[in-house]
C-alpha cells in the first residue's frame, strides 16, 4: 500500500518575529504541536528557514519563509 507524501506547511516570519527563536515561533504558528515535538522536527531537518535547516535556537531576522513537514503517521506494530 502506497502512502501519500506528508503535507508541507509554511508561514512567513514578519518583522514582529525578528529576534524570536525558531522553535518558539513554530509553537505560535503550529499550535497543535508541543515545543518538544517541534524541536524534534527541527532536529530531523523537517523545518526549513528559506530552504535551509536551522537549529531550534536560530533567531529569526524577519521576512523569512519557514516551511515544515509533518511525517505521515505509521500504524504501530502492536499485536
Architecture blueprint of SSEs:
Elements: E1 8-12, H1 22-29, H2 35-43, E2 47-49, E3 52-53, E4 65-69
Antiparallel strand pairs: 1-4, 2-3, 2-4
Descriptive tags:
79 residues, alpha+beta, 2 helices, 22% helix, 19% strand, elongated
Give your account of this protein's structure.
This protein is 22% helix and 19% strand. The chain has helices spanning 22-29, 35-43, and strands at 8-12, 47-49, 52-53, 65-69. It has a 4-stranded antiparallel beta sheet with strand order 1-4-2-3. Strand 2 and strand 3 (52-53) form a beta hairpin.
- The helix-strand sequence is EHHEEE
Determine the number of helices (DSSP H or I, runs of at least 4 residues). 2
The helix fraction, in percent, is 10-25%
Using the alpha-carbon principal axes, give the shape: elongated
What order do the strands of the largest sheet run in, or round the barrel if closed? 1-4-2-3
**N-to-C terminal Cα separation, in Å?**
20 Å
Category from helices, strands and their pairing? alpha+beta
Largest sheet: 4 strands, antiparallel
Low-confidence parts:
none
Radius of gyration computed on alpha carbons:
14 Å
% residues in beta strands: 15-25%
Task: List how many beta strands DSSP finds.
Answer: 4
Average predicted confidence as pLDDT: 88
